[in-house]
Each structure stands twice: as structure tokens, then as C-alpha cells.
Amino acid sequence: MTVRPLDGIRVIDAATIVAGPLSASILGEFGADVVKVEQPDGGDPMRTLGTAGPAGDSYWWWTETRNKTSVVLDLRTPDGAESLRRMTDRADVLIENYRTGTMEKWGLGYQALAVRNPRLVQLSVSGFGRVGPLRESVGVARIAEAFCGLSSMTGDPDGPPGLSGSAALADYLCAVYGAFGVVLALRARETTGTGQLVDMALTDGVARIMDEAIPMAAALGDERPRLGSETHRSVPHSNYESRDGRWVTIACSNDRMFDRLVAEAAWPALTDPRFATNADRIRHRAAVNAAVAAWVAELDATEVVARCDAAGVPSAVVATVAEYVAHPQTRARDSVVDVDDERFGRLTVPGVVPRLTATPGRIDRLGARLGETTVDEILERWT
């Protein structure tokens, strides 16, 4: 097997649900030896969150807690806490997502652990981070999205604030930034010789992907309205229903794209002089969308996409998840892969991201069996 970038890195995943555990899974895909610490009485609640799979645990559990072994420890007890200390003495990374102050209450705060192992890197995930007036407040993904203003921009103009496409978007963003932070801290350790605390709030990733919304609000007091499936910055940039009842997304991000669409469509309504520039089209948003919708309604979805593609206009049929999984492009990139498991056979799951060409990651196994290993076995492996 090829060498992976994080071979030899030892990670303890003492987090639950999504953000922290997914950070650990990402590290594990690229070679880290990841041990998941689970509390007694059922382990990580994610085992039962979502749709139950063929072996009892949820499909969400199988796909997002890959490449780990599981040990059961009650960190609330002196014995459990001491077992974690023994493990962190030999670990490179500890990941946790308890409410700020909880690990310190158990004698497992970063400062205490770093005295024993100065090279330790700790990723701490919480709703609002470890500083500020909300540092001890409870937060989950949907709360983070509401707090940052993302929810206020999501939904139909005349409806309530909506929910992003994934109910755990904030978790996934936090997981990616968290894993990135761990890798940066490990790289810094090569120079400094010491680890550090990586402090991630669920709100951090959400705020970072909101394009110009934050500087606009701060500088102009401009709050973006809810626009349904549209965007504030470009028109046409929406979903349109085709003759065969499918929806097609067309995204003209600039005037050149729109001019190519007009030439390809040869649809008189699109040549309206009011549509000359993107600024003009934003002012006449409803009229532009009506013209595009009328053209798309005369064609089947695949024909719309083929004609847009020929003209260099970004478009796609709005696919179902099943259609995405079966698409040749998806399979060509290993964006989804089939994993065989002795517990339930074959399961199709998202592939490894990012795609490295020389030292790629891989999926060695799906969700761990609860309590399948012991602290002594881990310490022996990490000698």
C-alpha cells in the first residue's frame, strides 16, 4: 500500500456526533491511527442518529466514523479520566467537543494534559468557541447557522427563514476546518517542538463561507433578502422547470455567459435591451427569469443542458442523490465508493476528499464496533 501523509500520527477521538468525529475520520483516511473513546451505555449518540442500518447502527454512523477502533471509557470517573491521561501521554492529537469547561472539570483540560505531554495537539469543538460571552452556551449546527445569519438569507421571500441543504452544514464545515487546524498545528510542532490548542466553534466555518454578506452588513448595513433558489449577485442564476417535468439549474455569472445563452437559445424574449448587463438583469430579475423559464419549458431537461454545455453556459439537471451516486462522473473520481464489511456486506459511501495523486487517502473500514479494544491494547500498540 502507498504511504499516507499522516502515517504514524496517533489520534484520540473523544468527541460525539459529527464535527469532532468527522475531523478524526478525515485524519484517519490519510493514515492517522485513530482511537474513538465512547462513553458507556450505548456509546456515541450518533450510532442511533438518522436511519438505522442493517447491523443496528445508523447509516450516518457507518459513513462518518470510518477508520477507527473503539474503546469504552467513562471520563466522568477517576479511573476513566486516568485511562484517557495514559493514552494522551502517547498520543499526538486529542479531539473533544464537550461544552467549554467540562474537560477541565474532569481534570482533562488541555493545560493539564500538555504538562504531561507538551507535544500534544488538541482540537476542541464547541458551539461558540472557548472565548467570549457565549463560550459556555450549548450549540449545534442549526443554532450556529441561525446565529451567523445564514438562516436569515435562506428560504422563500415570503416565508420563514429556511434550513440549508444539510441539517449539519455547520458541523461539516467545522470538521474540515478542524482537521486543517490539526494538520497546521502538527506542522508547527515540527518547528517549535510543542503542540497547541486548536479552538473551533461551529459558527466559525459558517461565517467564513458567507461570501460578501458580512462586509456588506458591516459597511453598508445591507441585509440580504431571502431569494429562494436565486442569488443576489447574478441573473439568471436559478432553477427552471423543463418540458419533461425535471428542473434545470442555469448559472450565468457574467455578461459573457449570458450573451452565449442568448445566442444559443435564439429566444426573442431574451434579447430585450433591458437585459444588456448583469446590473440591468438584477433590476429586471423577474422578467429575465420569466424569459429563461419560457425557453426551458419548451425543451426536455437533457436538451437544455446539452445546448447550454455547447454554448459554454454552466448548467445541470437537478439530480436526486441516487442519480448522483450512479453517474459515471461520480464513479470516475471515486467520489463515492463501495466498501465491503463483514457485518452487513457492501455499502456505498462518499469517497475520500481531497484526492491526492501520489499519497492518496483510503477507507480501511467503516464504523467501529463499540468497545472492540482496550486501553492496554492501545498503549501496547502505541509503545
TrEMBL record:
Name the UniProt record assigns to this protein: Unannotated protein
Alphabetically ordered keywords of this record: Transferase
Keyword Transferase listed: yes
InterPro entries recorded: CoA-transferase_III_domain (IPR050483), CoA-Trfase_fam_III (IPR003673), CoA-Trfase_III_dom3_sf (IPR044855), CoA-Trfase_III_dom_1_sf (IPR023606)
GO terms of molecular function: CoA-transferase activity
Organism: freshwater metagenome
Keyword Transmembrane: no
Gene3D superfamilies in the record: Crotonobetainyl-coa:carnitine coa-transferase, domain 1 (3.40.50.10540), formyl-coa transferase, domain 3 (3.30.1540.10)
